[in-house]
Amino acid sequence: MSPFGGAGGLGAVPAGQSAVPCFRAEDFHLFCTAGELLRGVDLVVPGGRITALIGPSGAGKSMLLRSLNRMHDRVAGLRVTGGLWFREQEIYAPDLDPVCLRRRVGMVFRQPVVFPASIFDNVAYGPRVHRLELGPAGLATRVERCLRAAGLWDEVRDVLRQPAGRLTGGQRQRLAIARALAVDPEVLLLDEPTATVDPVATARIEDALLRLRGALTVVVVTHNLAQAARISQQTVFMLEGRVVESGPTEVVFHQPRDTRTEDYLTGRFG
Amino acid sequence: MIRAARPLDRLAGGALWVALAVVLLPLAGMVWLAVRHLPAVWLAPRGLWPAIRGSLSVVGVGLALAVPAGLCGGVWVAEVRQGFLARAVRLSAALLGGASGVVVGYAALFALVHGFGWGFGTAAGGLALAAVMLPQVVGATTEAVAAVPDALRDASLALGANRRTTVWRVVAPAAAPRILAGVLGAASLGIGETAALACTLGWTGVPSAAGSYLTRAVWSSVRRPESGAAALAVLLLVVLALRAAADRMGGRS
Ligand SMILES: Nc1ncnc2c1ncn2[C@@H]1O[C@H](COP(=O)(O)OP(=O)(O)OP(=O)(O)O)[C@@H](O)[C@H]1O
Ligand SMILES: [Mg+2]
Known about the structure:
heterodimer; A: about 270 residues; alpha/beta; Rossmann fold; 10 helices; 10 strands; about 35% helix; disordered N terminus; B: about 250 residues; mainly alpha; MetI-like fold
C-alpha cells in the first residue's frame, strides 16, 4: 500500500509535500519500567495532511504521539528500539536536541492548558522564549494571525490583556492551538483536542484544523470516529501498541483490510 | 438511604467541636487582648517605636537573605526531586526547620556575636532570623512548585522551551501565590521569634546590647503590664495581618 497515493479529496495539497514522509516508523518499540508500551509500530505519516490516530483506550495512541516530539523523555526507564524519523532526522538519535525538535513539532493536549498570564502573553510565549526578532508590532501581528487561525480572534480581540484563566474550556483549547502555532511549527500533534469541549467549540477546532491543512502536517488522536471521518485524509488504527492498519481515511473506513479495524469501526469491538 | 448517626460518629463530631474550641478560644483571646490594649501603644511611656523599628529591620534583613536562597533552593529541590544534592538540601532544611529558635540563637551567639566578633546587632540578628525563616521558605516553595500540574510544564516544553525557561517563566509564576503565602508566613514567624533574637540582639541581662524588638518589649516589661500588653497587641496584630494575607494568597491559584 502506498501511503501517498489515493487519498480522497486531496487536490489542494501541493505534490511536493508528499515526496518525503513527515514521520516514518519502522518496527518502533517503546519500553518503560511498566513494560513494553509500543510493540513494533510501522507507520508513514505524509506531510501537509491531517492524519487521524484512532483505536481503543490503552492502544498506545498517546504514547506514539508523544514519541513524535519526544515528550516523554521524563518517563522512568524509557528505552526505545527500531526506527522513528521526522523527515530525514532520526527522532531518538542521541545527538538530536529535543528542544529544536519540539519547536518544529508542536503539541496540544487533551486537557486545555493555559499559562497564568494574559491571553496575549500565552500566545506570545513561544516567540518570546525563542527570541524571535519580531518587534512589538510583529509580535502583535503574529498573535493576531495565530488567534485567527485557531478561530478565537473574534471572541478575544478586546480582552487580549486579560488573564487567560477567564476563558472557557473550549476557548482555552483554541488558545492552546494558537499558542502552538505561534512558533511556526511544521507539524501540529493533537491528543484528543476536543475530548473536553462542547460541540460548538469542537466544530471551531475542526474548522481550524481544516484551514491549517496543507500549510501544516496535522496528527490528531481522537475517539470520535465521525470527527476522524470529517477532517482526516489519512487514518491510522492502533491496537495493543501496534498499528493494525493505515491508509486513506475513505479506504480505512469503508474497505478496511483487517477484520479488527472493521470490528472497531462498527462498534463490535472487544 | 441516610442512616442515623451512630455513637462513634457523635463522639467524633464532639471531638471536632472541642478541637475547634481549643483553636478558636486562644485566637479570640488574642484578638480581644490586642483590641483592648491598642490605645496603650500610643500611651506607652517610652513608646514602642524603637521595638517596632528593630523588629522590622531585623525581619527585613532576614527576609532579604532567606527569600532568594529559599526560593532557589525550593525550586531546585522540587524540580530536581532526586539525586544526592537534592536530598542533602531537603535534609538540611528539615534539620534547620526542626531546630528551635534557641538552638539557632545559641549557634549565632557563639559563632557570629562572639566568634566573628560581630557583637549584638541587626547583622547577627538578621542572619539568625534568616536561618529560622529559610526552612519555611524552602518548604513553602517546594510544596508550591510540586503542586504545579505537570500539564503546565508539558505545554511549555512542547513549545520548545527548555527546562530552565519552563521553570522560571511558567512554573514559578503559577506557584507564586503560594510561595508568597509562605514568605508572609515566614515573616510572621520572624516577627514572633524570641530566643534567636535574644541571643543576637541582646536580652535584659546584657547591658551593652541596645537592640530592641517587639518580643523583647513584651517579656522585659512584666513589671509594667500596660506597656508589655501594648507590645503584645502590636505583635499579634502584625502576625494576624500577615497570616490573613498569607491565607488569601494561598487560596488564590
Ligand atoms: N507514564 C506511563 N508509565 C507507564 N505506563 C503508561 C504510562 N502512560 C501510559 N501507560 C500505559 O501505556 C498504555 C498505552 O497508553 P496510551 O495513553 O498511549 O493509550 P491511549 O491509546 O492514548 O488510550 P486513551 O485513548 O485512553 O488515551 C496503557 O496501557 C497505559 O496504561
Ligand atoms: Mg490517550
